[in-house]
Amino acid sequence: MTGAKIECMMMCMNEKEGNNTQPFNFMSVAKTARIFKVTSATIRNWFNDGKFPNSQKLEDSLILIHVDDINAVRQSEIAKRTAEIKQLQKTI
């Protein structure tokens, strides 16, 4: 699938949500993978595991990840890492 087709689908999804103020509320699997520094396969697995509840699967090979889901996972990872650091500090 071409980048132009993906971009068009993301714009259509944004219009469906009624959001015309932000250019994109969805990101490709590849861009999401770069954000988390993981593979695209990992992002697809996370999607299949329900880690991105607001995201959409439009075709067999096209998954659009909602930015709210990305932010929620990032916040969850930060909280988890912070807790790990605090636990390690207690042992010092």
Summarize model confidence as the mean pLDDT: 84
Write down the Rg: 16 Å
- The CATH architecture term is Orthogonal Bundle
State the secondary-structure class. alpha+beta
Tell me about the largest β-sheet.
Answer: 3 strands, antiparallel
The helical percent reads 55-70%
Question: Overview of this structure, please?
Answer:
With 92 residues, the chain is of the alpha+beta class. It contains 4 helices and 3 strands. 62% of the residues lie in helices and 13% in strands. It has a 3-stranded antiparallel beta sheet. A hairpin with a 2-residue loop joins strand 2 and strand 3. The protein is elongated, with a radius of gyration of 16 Å.
Task: List the SSEs and their pairings.
Layout: H1 3-17, E1 26-28, H2 29-36, H3 40-48, E2 56-59, E3 62-66, H4 67-91
Antiparallel strand pairs: 1-3, 2-3
Helix pairs in contact: 2-3
What would you say about this model in short?
The chain has 92 residues and is of the alpha+beta class.
Name the descriptors.
3 strands; three-stranded antiparallel beta sheet; 92 residues; elongated; Multidrug-efflux Transporter Regulator, Chain: A, Domain 2; alpha+beta
